[in-house]
Specification:
Elements: H1 5-10, E1 17-19, H2 23-32, E2 39-41, H3 46-50, E3 55-56, E4 61-62, E5 65-69, E6 75-80, H4 90-100
Parallel strand pairs: 1-2
Antiparallel strand pairs: 3-4, 5-6
Amino acid sequence: MRDRYGAFQERGAEVLAIAPDTAEHARRYCERESIPFPCLADPERAVFRQYDVKSAAISLGQRPALFVLDKEGVVRYAYLGWQQWEIPSVDDTLAELDALG
């Protein structure tokens, strides 16, 4: 998503990363990885619980998740993976956005 952030912006969409860590750790990670979109810290995992994103030993930590919300904040697409490398492709995510119209 980092490398194709412009494609999201062209669609009027915003990408937000939510890290289950402190603000300082999230900031350092985003700087180190040159993440162009906002990265919010959720050290208490409140957002993760709200969206039912669980941490599990079988997934070696935090399970990956991706959500597409419409302009009213309604979840229109949700993906909850089991392993860190499981995440929908950018093309699949953009197709979900395009389907919203």
